[in-house]
Amino acid sequence: MYKLLIRPLFFLFDPEKIHYFTFSLVRFTSKIPGFSALYRSLYLVDDKRLETEVFGLKFKNPVGLAAGFDKDAKLYKELSNFGFGFIEIGTLTPKGQEGNPKKRLFRLKEDSAIINRMGFNNGGVLEAVERLKANNGVLIGGNIGKNKLTPNEEATSDYEICFDALYEHVDYFVVNVSSPNTPNLRALQDKEPLTELLQTLQNKNLAKPKQKPVLLKIAPDLTDEQLLDIIDIVAVTKIAGVIATNTTISREGLQSVNKAEMGGLSGKPLAKRATEVIRFLSEKSNKAFPIIGVGGIHTAEDAIEKLDAGASLVQLYTGFIYEGPALVKAINKKVLARMN
């Protein structure tokens, strides 16, 4: 029904406006008695065999919602009813910010892709914390970044502020230095500043009575040499793992009229490269750390490819928009079928 009726209707409207309309719709229907249970009955695959333990956390299933969809932790409870094993909120920054000027979100329908240049638009970490206080059982990842106006030399302080604010309210952290939409942010992926940033956060983490897994989200546009640096950095800082990958600045092979728009590309065109990065990190590190695979997952088979390449978990974003919540169920069913 989603692909036949709902998606064609939604795709008639501006992508950002329909995103917020969908939020309101899901929130409204979830308040109607019986609807949350209906969503769970339609999309949740409840099977103990799907439980996956990664970096000390027990995930109900290996399919999560990637950061960027529920930036401000406004809908995590309702979204969990669509069958996700975990929800990643953010990217959050210390201060709320508007993000980049609109229009900043573009569909590439011919390519089953999206280009965004949102620019970490969010209400600030403290607003999200207030909403997370009401969480009752949803496994949450907190994706953190720096404010646009914070110079890179002071970026570590922004990440520390977000870490401290979210520590009691999320199950794991994701350090986002790979978005192409905040000026100079990707420079923080260079070996020296990245090692310093991650080590600072890890030192804070180790001082806590209970440590939270800290993950690094990387760009798909890194060279093999840079990926080897990532493996070294993970070993030195002893962070829990890597999310591979964020959006790409590549435009290779695109057909859509919107292909020239600035921003990060997600969706089907990213699938092959994201899987290559996962496989490279897994093989070159000798499976030294867990990887969450994200990028171009539009079918259950796409998810299995990521898992076979070395991912322990997968996340959806653009595939969820194009394929609908039935994709979550299809992946979990496929994972179960391979166990038989």
Question: What labels would you give this structure?
Answer:
340 residues, FMN, eight-stranded parallel beta barrel, TIM Barrel, 13 strands, pyrimidine biosynthesis, Dihydroorotate_DH_2, alpha/beta, three-stranded antiparallel β-sheet, globular, membrane, Dihydroorotate_DH_CS
In words, what does this structure look like?
- By secondary structure, the protein is an alpha/beta fold.
- It has one domain (2-337): Aldolase class I (TIM Barrel, Alpha-Beta Barrel), CATH 3.20.20.
- The chain contains 12 helices and 13 strands.
- It has helices spanning 2-10, 15-31, 35-43, 76-80, 125-132, 155-166, 191-206, 224-237, 271-284, 300-309, 318-323, 326-337; strands at 52-54, 57-59, 63-65, 86-92, 105-108, 113-116, 140-144, 172-176, 214-218, 241-244, 264-267, 291-294, 313-316.
- The strands form 3 sheets. It has an 8-stranded parallel beta barrel with strand order 3-4-7-8-9-10-12-13, surrounded by 5 helices. Strands 5-6-11 form a 3-stranded antiparallel sheet. A two-stranded antiparallel sheet has the order 1-2.
- Strand 3, helix 4 and strand 4 (86-92) form a beta-alpha-beta unit.
- Helix 6 (155-166) packs parallel to helix 7 (191-206) and helix 8 (224-237) packs across helix 9 (271-284).
- The mean pLDDT is 97.
